[in-house]
Specification:
Blueprint lengths: L2 H14 L3 E2 L5 H4 L1 H4 L4 H9 L6 E5 L7 E7 L2 E8 L2 E9 L3
Parallel strand pairs: 1-5
Antiparallel strand pairs: 2-3, 3-4, 4-5
Helix pairs in contact: 1-4
Length: about 100
């Protein structure tokens, strides 16, 4: 799945509230959506400003065969993946300098 399809699927999950958060260390620093420090509306706005130049993909470090998508835009870092039918957020935070 490329950028365009991932963006559509991500925005749909955000709009419908049908997303999950991957359990991880330092979640209060690395996933501000999970902690409520960033709103769904804020994340939607960031994602809407993204294009293919703001997108990269890599393999999940623990789940072979799962592609992780990363969006970097306006100082934000959003890392997520899909395991149908679910959308999982790994990170939503300001980029580190």
């Amino acid at each position: 799945m490329g950028f365009k399809q991932a963006k559509v699927k991500l925005l749909q999950a955000l709009s419908q509230g049908t997303f999950l958060h991957e359990a991880r260390n330092a979640i209060e620093e690395k996933n501000l959506l999970s902690t409520g420090d960033v709103s769904v509306e804020d994340v939607i706005a960031i994602v809407n400003r993204c294009n293919g130049a703001h997108h990269t993909m890599s393999a999940h470090h623990q789940v072979p065969g799962v592609t992780v998508h990363v969006l970097k835009r306006d100082g934000w870092y959003i890392k997520f993946y899909f395991i149908d039918p679910d959308t999982y957020f790994i990170s939503v935070h300001q980029s580190e300098p």
